[in-house]
Amino acid sequence: MKRPVSIGFKIFGIAASMLGLLLVVVQVSTHRLQQVSREIESLAEYIIPITNAVAKVDVHALEQEVLFERILKHYEIEPLDPKLIATETAEFERRNIEVDEELIAAEQRAENALEHLATVTEQTKLAAVIPKLQEVEVLHQVFHDHAVEVLGLLKAGQYDQAHQLERQLADEEAILNQELETILLELEALTVAAAEAGQRRQQTVQRLSVAIALLATVLGGVGAGLVTQGLVRPVRQLTRKMQAIQQGDLNAQAQVIGGDEVATLATAFNQMARELKSKAQLEDTFGKYVDPRVVKQLLARTDSTNITGDRQVMTVFFADVEGFSERTQSLSPEDLVTLTNAYFTLMAQPIGQHLGVLDKFINTIVMGFWGPPFADAERHAELACAAALDLQTQLSKIQALIENQAHLFPESQEDGNASPLPLERGDFYLHVGIATGPLVAGNMGSARAKSYTVMGDTVNTASRLKGVSKQYGVAIALTQETQTRLGDRYATRELDLIQVIGKEEPVRVYELLGEATQIDEGIRQRQQHFAQGLAAYRQQHWDDAANYFAACSTPEQSDPPAQLYLNRIKTLRQQPPAADWDGVWRLTKK
Known about the structure:
There is one protein chain. By secondary structure, the protein is α+β, with helices and mostly antiparallel strands. It has four domains: 9-226, Methane Monooxygenase Hydroxylase, Chain G, domain 1 (Up-down Bundle), CATH 1.20.58; 265-300; 308-513, Nucleotide cyclase, GGDEF domain (Alpha-Beta Plaits); 520-590, no CATH class. The protein has 15 helices and nine strands. It has helices spanning 7-76, 82-113, 120-156, 159-246, 261-287, 292-300, 324-328, 333-353, 380-404, 410-414, 457-472, 480-486, 521-538, 542-551, 560-574; strands at residues 310-322, 357-362, 365-370, 429-445, 450-455, 476-479, 490-499, 507-515, 585-586. Strands 1, 2, 3, 4, 5, 6, 7, 8 and 9 form a nine-stranded mixed β-sheet that branches. Helix 5 (261-287) packs across helix 6. The relative contact order is 0.06.
């Protein structure tokens, strides 16, 4: 199995590669500079000293020749000065010794240099100089011997013989000078060649160093770029996938490239994405049975499903459509489930749209509640009323739902007519009960089955008010605490002070008329007449109350609560209430 390469090893590899290339540059430069150093060393320690020695030979030889000429001149001057001639002769001999010493030194240096010169070319050229130095030594010795012989003849007075030998000596002197000049030129050429070779090597080192540095930079840059790209590409890909997850794409999966730490991170990310997707699917699945916000709250907790109960003021909502159950009871089980699900979808939409929690379905009744942490503690009553008003618009959709599925009903099939069954607008009636008060909210149930719900007397009150709305012929009935929390946004009217079954304390009930800005003048007048009639009713002013209640209805539209009070007044006239009557009406059915 191929061993994965870690990010640290990759980064170390880049650094090591760059360091290796740098070492190559240093090694090559050092080697070339050593060659240049040897060239310079050859010049400084061998060639230049040899050249200097030969130059001194040339100088001393010239000085010796000049001294010889001066001695000859002294012999031509009368009277002779023996002392001066002796002095010049001694100087002549000293120069001769210096020439011999410099020649010997030059020869020794040349022979020693052959073993140390940097190149074969230099060795070959210098080797050719050594015989010439030896020849110069011979020529100089011949010149010296003849010069001494001439001086001896002059001293003996043999001038003619001396002059003859003097001419021969001039030729020997010219040959000696020419040979020395040749040697100097060759040594100069060797010096120049060595210097130029050193300069060329130095330039070569510079060019080579630049070339290798550029090559190292290019190779290092390309290598670093490839490795960096190999590191950055999966990281960028992983970043894009993370952004996709943040935007809700739980199907995002990162490509696992290689076996380094980024690949390990990508593998872990893919596992996390799969778990998030599984969690989202779980939330979606349970969200069809429990409010999604409750599901998230449950999944966010680490202490299993033990959500501690909390007592707080909340608003509860019960809603039902009268007539739906009767209308659909003849359907087959499959059709009944399909149609009922569509019905509940329409009934539940306003609850969710206004931040309510859908608690349960009971037959055709829908229960929901509002309160922290799902809804603002100051607005839960308003939100519940907004949902109730939206349900009034859903009523027409429910009626259209039945009409569009008319072919499912047996009576339609018996007639052989698949067209929608005609329905009267009064076939369906919405009844909503809303109550606000203290409740206990929490995860309740057995050890194996729980439900996040609310408990308390407020729940019972809301359920009773749904029945009250039916008895009073209104769509939406509220408790006084709910009505108080609405402020001026919604228009309401007090319906009655009642005692519902199962409660000792009377409940003041209101009808929700709608948003205050959308109430027309006719409804406002009805609201005013009803309030006046209710006040007269409680004071047992039956005639005034009857007149006010009668004014609530018009030929075009009857007011069911007002009609209920008119019928009640007839009864109370026939059977007057007790003297301590408090105006509370006691209901005898739910």
